Amino acid sequence: MTLEPLVRLAEAAALDAPSQRKRMLVIVNPAATTMSARLRNLVVAALHGRYEVEAIDTQARGHATDLCLEAAKEGYDVVVSFGGDGTVNEVANGLSGCSTPLTCLPGGATNVLCKLLGIPGDIVDATEHLLAMADTWAPRQVDLGVANGRAFTYTSGFGVDASVVKRIEQSPDLKRHKLREYFFVYAAVETVLRQYVRHPPRMEVHVDGRTDKAITTIVQNAEQFTYLDDKPIAIAEGAGLQTGSLAGVALRGVAPRDIPGVAVRLLSAKRSVVGHRQILDFRDVDGLRCVSADGRAIPLHVDGDHVGDVTEAVFEVRPGALAVVS
């Protein structure tokens, strides 16, 4: 990545600084996939042209949430999450229920909420977008999902996808590799074949007045489950950041013969996984409960961060709980 456009952007922004600037806290994850010290400093220098900026690097998991709790008390006009989806999740948990809005800059591998909010995936374009935002300031409220008390911005999973997330987190260096997308695919296939074909964990899914059996459940608070580069991957139908409800799917089981069919549906713009014989779907619900049927602990993730192995996952929605500006 060439950073010369950011150098020019920082120089131009300094010449256009207004007398009255909003207070901005930039929370930087220095370990994010695409982050470097020079990138961080250039972006912060550019933002100084339109905002009164303070930038703080996170030191450990959970640090961003603590910083946001303090930022809300100190009266910052906006908090910028500069990292990946995990950093955004921590910031959202810290700002949930308060008036201080969140916005974000892409520093991770996927940057799902960035894209959902209409913020460009390229860091130069995204920085320009945030500079222009100062002239069109219009915070709005979006919903948050909740899994066992932990808020999520776009998705949470109990089962297969959480197991894949857990597997990927065991190889943090590969998340920064230029071939990381291939590693993600490999980790997904390996996890399914090793853990979910012969003796998968079983769960009961209690939703919308019915109980179903499944091996995994995916709950969405937003339109997209994830992105493959800039290609949106949709799973649940009827999900959205401002619907006031949750949607999702549960997978009954998986055999090797089912993997190609499900994969094709995931990557197709014309076909949905809803309707596949192994998929149970739900939408427009305000909550659901998933319980391990055999007592085995099952991995749980929120926004792509593994948060533990548990025997029960309770999902809820908090309508309008998060202020955002983009």
In terms of topology, how is this protein built?
Elements lengths: L3 H12 L6 E7 L8 H11 L3 E7 L5 H12 L3 E6 L1 H11 L6 E5 L5 H5 L6 H11 L6 E8 L2 E3 L2 E4 L1 H10 L10 H16 L7 E5 L2 E5 L1 E5 L5 E3 L2 E3 L12 E6 L6 H10 L11 E7 L1 E6 L5 E5 L2 E6 L1 E13 L2
Parallel strand pairs: 1-2, 1-3, 3-4
Antiparallel strand pairs: 5-6, 5-18, 7-10, 7-16, 8-9, 8-15, 10-13, 11-12, 13-14, 15-18, 16-17
Describe this entry's structure for a reader:
The chain is α+β, with helices and mostly antiparallel strands. It folds into two domains: 4-138, 3-Layer(aba) Sandwich (Rossmann fold), CATH 3.40.50.10330; 150-324, Tumour Suppressor Smad4 (Sandwich), CATH 2.60.200.40. Helices cover 30% and strands 32% of the residues. The protein has helices at residues 4-15, 37-47, 63-74, 85-95, 112-116, 123-133, 160-169, 180-195, 258-267; strands at residues 22-28, 51-57, 78-83, 102-106, 140-147, 150-152, 155-158, 203-207, 210-214, 216-220, 226-228, 231-233, 246-251, 279-285, 287-292, 298-302, 305-310, 312-324. The strands form four sheets. Strands 6-5-18-15-8-9 form a six-stranded antiparallel beta sheet, covered by helices on one side. A hairpin with a 2-residue loop joins strand 8 and strand 9. The longest helix has 16 residues, at 180-195. The relative contact order is 0.15. The mean pLDDT is 87.
